[in-house]
Write a structure and sequence with these properties.
The protein is an alpha/beta fold and 396 residues long. The protein has two domains: 173 residues, FAD/NAD(P)-binding domain, CATH 3.50.50; 152 residues, D-Amino Acid Oxidase, subunit A, domain 2 (D-Amino Acid Oxidase, Chain A, domain 2, 2-Layer Sandwich). The chain is built from nine helices and 21 strands. The strands form four sheets. Strands 7-8-6-16-17-18-15-19 form an eight-stranded mixed sheet, with helices on both faces. It has a six-stranded mixed sheet with strand order 10-3-2-14-21-20, sandwiched between helices. Helix 1 runs parallel beside helix 6, helix 1 packs across helix 9 and helix 2 packs across helix 9. Bound molecules: flavin-adenine dinucleotide (FAD). The site of flavin-adenine dinucleotide has 40 residues, from helix 1, strand 15 and strand 19.
């Protein structure tokens, strides 16, 4: 099968009552970005099928909204570079209210072995003209006096990093996609996939059937389940992420960068209001979709939090919640047509980066479907085929 050619579009009526060119599974930020970007071609009949009552009920609903350039993988840096202008101009371009703030991310470590890692990552960022820099412990203390620095070897920061509004961006794509004719079916679960001659022909849902020659699996943590319906093993697994919400605290400014302690995983994200979203210490958890809060993790979390930001010992915990993120073995997302099934596209496994990369992912998937190739970046490190071999890895 020649995988580089574009798909021929022909709306078939033969299988099922509802005929589309492309069916997207999942109305999270990824599925709706893809549907929106596909709708701009003006040539396709597109459906988005979502099992919940509303869009943005999956991983995206729990997302902290962080946007960063500081990755160890060049592919992830490229995805942020493509996405950032879209996120900054989103409100104007998409006619939907969203917030966007540059606050910076600050990665710190007390492990001398990390210094080489910082150096390597800064070299990658320099190649992309991203203005990230190394900060010695004294510089960190000078800029952010609430951080304990006496045990640190240093950190890296990038002023272009920040955060935006995951709900607003998802709903902006939803609104604009529908305006351009995309049909979104809510409370409709994909339960089967019709295949013949190794080509996707349609999907069965809780209420009926849809025909299509392209199916995009953008089911977030449900990625492997949709794969199974097509007889395909997708090595992405949902992992829990427990978030602690704390009230604003004197001494921690609302304009603080997102601080990440690379040794414990602890992070502190501060909203403009001063409300803090804290977490990151559950990185060694097992795959699963149980979203009940595990209070047995609280003590370990507090220890890591207070170790890095002593002021947090006075923080008022308002509530905690759990979301799931989809992780792949090499911590890179999956974008592209599966090598063993024509018309079966995957867009998932984006770990903690799916929101920030959603504009790029929508553009790339749209190009792959309509043109058979992508002009924006080399998609090989993201391809489904690479999951079954060796390749680039994102270590943080
Ligand atoms: C606590 C937390 C914090 C995060 N912080 C950040 C961050 O700071 N920055 C960042 O960029 N990313 C972050 N992420 C990751 C980000 O949220 C995800 O990468 C992104 O939301 C994935 O979007 P999605 O559309 O692929 O998945 P989802 O939002 O999960 O959407 C998938 C949709 O598919 C639907 N679905 C599944 N199966 C079926 C089916 N059979 N039939 C019909 N519909 C189906 C689901 O109901 C769901 O609505 C965070 C994640 C968590 C959990």
């Amino acid at each position: 099968m020649d995988r580089r050619r574009g798909i021929q579009y022909r709306t078939e009526v033969g299988y099922g009552l509802r005929a589309f060119d492309v069916v997207v599974t999942g109305a999270g930020v990824i599925g709706l970005s893809i549907a929106y970007h596909l709708s701009l071609t003006g040539k396709l009949k597109i459906a988005v099928i979502e099992k919940e009552r509303f869009p943005c009920m999956g991983s995206t609903a729990y997302c902290t909204g962080g946007i960063r350039h500081q990755f160890s993988s060049p592919t992830n840096v490229a995805l942020t570079k493509i996405s950032l202008p879209y996120l900054k101009n989103f409100e104007k371009e998409m006619d939907y209210p969203v917030y966007f703030f540059h606050r910076g991310y600050l990665f710190v470590s007390s492990n001398p072995d990390r210094l080489k890692e910082f150096e390597r990552n800064l070299a990658v960022l320099k190649d992309f003209d991203v203005p990230a820099e190394f900060l010695a412990p004294e510089e960190i203390a000078g800029r952010h006096p609430y951080i304990r620095t006496d045990d640190l070897v240093g950190g890296t920061t990038c002023p272009l990093d920040g955060y935006a509004d995951p709900y607003g961006v998802t709903m902006g794509y939803f609104k604009q996609a529908r305006k351009r004719g995309v049909e979104v079916f809510l409370r409709e679960e994909v339960t089967g996939i019709a295949i013949s001659n190794n080509q996707v022909r349609g999907v069965t849902t809780s209420s009926g059937r849809f025909s299509c020659r392209v199916l995009v699996n953008a089911a977030g943590p449900g990625l492997p389940e949709i794969g199974k319906l097509a007889g395909i093993e997708i090595p992405a697994r949902p992992y829990r992420r427990q978030v602690y919400v704390c009230a604003p605290l004197e001494g921690i400014p609302g304009r603080a960068p997102l601080v990440v302690d690379m040794d414990t995983g602890f992070y502190m994200h501060t909203e403009k209001s001063g409300t803090m979203l804290l977490g990151g210490t559950d990185k060694d958890s097992f795959p699963g979709t149980d979203t009940a809060v595990d209070w047995s993790l609280l003590d370990g979390f507090i220890e890591s939090a207070v170790l890095r930001i002593p002021r947090l010992q006075d923080a008022q915990l308002v509530r905690a919640y759990v979301g799931t993120r989809s992780l792949t073995p090499d911590y890179l997302g999956i974008i592209g047509e599966h090598p063993d099934l024509e018309g079966f596209f995957i867009a998932g496994g984006f770990a903690g980066n799916g929101f920030m990369h959603s504009p790029a992912i929508g553009l790339i998937v749209s190009q792959l479907i309509t043109e058979g190739k992508c002009s924006l970046l080399d998609t090989a490190p993201l391809s489904p085929a690479r999951l079954y071999g060796d390749g680039e890895k994102n270590v943080f």
